[in-house]
TrEMBL record:
Signal peptide: none
Cofactor entry: Mg(2+)
EC nos: 2.7.6.1
Protein's organism: Ardenticatena maritima
Keyword Kinase part of the UniProt annotation: yes
Protein name (Swiss-Prot/TrEMBL): Ribose-phosphate pyrophosphokinase
Active site: K189
Length: 288
């Protein structure tokens, strides 16, 4: 097999190659001054089983275009099979027409990946599992669940409760609760009055005196997570741990997380987390 990387997350590609004990295949990938992207493979991939690693992380749209152009390059060089390895799939919230006159961008991306020439896709913890159905090519949605579960088990925390920070996260949180043999609690957001943005939180379950583990698929601006952290502390939680697969960390996530009464933030490296975004209480599990 051959492994290639775009410019989105070369560190992860190197880690995967180290794990597999094979070299990372080389390619020139850069932008011209006019922002057009150039790709040239250093060697032929004719007939090879090629994996291209490129999460849809910042700069998101450039990295998506780079992914497509690299797939096209591999296809035109007669690769035997091309697997697009997309550890983080962007636009996953755009998975349905939930209001008039809006696109379904996740579907558009699946179409583009296929049209570019990918034979398979591989991704991790999609925000919405139904995105699998947007692809006609086969693929695998992997999960960081086992890494997260094993890490938490190794910590040996007692008196745990797993918390879904919103109702949408309940199913995954319940799976983790079962794996840790812990109870489940759910933070529920309710609309207040006529203001469409005003929300009140209420808690289903008991966190008092317990080590609360909040479990979500991603932390973007950290609003969901830090609201839940403050709320659980007020409800009497002992220590609060936040666990998520994708550490997107868009502003003002770092400020919010720094100010939150959080014991540990446990993320993975599906997207790069540069040194300036690493908080002292952050642990990064490798999906490599
Ligand atoms: C929402 O449905 C997701 O599971 C996450 O809770 C959400 O993407 C987090 O966004 P933010 O960090 O901006 O609150």
């Amino acid at each position: 097999i051959k492994i290639y990387t775009g410019t989105a997350h070369p560190e992860l590609a190197h880690e995967i190659c180290d794990y597999l004990k094979i070299p990372l295949s080389g390619a020139d990938v850069f932008q011209f001054p006019n922002e057009n992207i150039f790709v040239k493979l250093h060697q032929s991939v004719r007939g090879q089983d090629v994996f291209l690693i490129q999460p849809m992380t910042r700069p998101v749209n450039k990295n998506i275009m780079e992914l497509l152009i690299m797939i096209d390059t591999l296809k035109r060089d007669s690769a035997g099979r091309i697997t697009a390895v997309i550890p983080y799939f962007a636009y996953a919230r755009s998975d349905k027409k939930d209001q008039p006159r809006v696109p379904i961008t996740a579907r558009l991306l699946a179409d583009l990946i296929e049209t570019a020439g990918a034979d398979r896709y591989l991704t991790i913890d999609l925000h919405a599992g139904q995105i699998q159905g947007f692809f006609k090519i086969p693929g695998d949605e992997l999960t960081a669940f086992h890494l997260q579960r094993d890490y938490l088990l190794r910590k040996g925390l007692d008196n745990m409760v797993v918390v879904a920070p919103d109702v949408g996260a309940t199913k995954k949180a319940r799976n983790l609760a079962e794996a840790l043999n812990a109870p489940l609690a759910i933070v529920e957001k309710r609309r207040v009055g006529n203001d469409p943005t005003a929300r009140a939180l209420s808690l289903i379950g008991d966190v008092e005196g317990k080590n609360a583990i909040i479990f979500d698929d991603e932390i973007d601006t950290a609003g969901t997570m830090t609201n839940a952290i403050h709320f659980l502390k007020q409800a009497g939680a002992k220590e609060v741990y936040a666990v998520a697969t994708h550490g997107i960390l868009s502003p003002p996530a770092l400020e919010r997380l720094r100010e939150a009464p959080l014991t540990e933030l446990i993320l993975t490296n599906t997207v790069p987390i540069p040194p300036e975004k690493r908080l002292p209480n952050m642990t990064i599990l490798s999906v490599a």
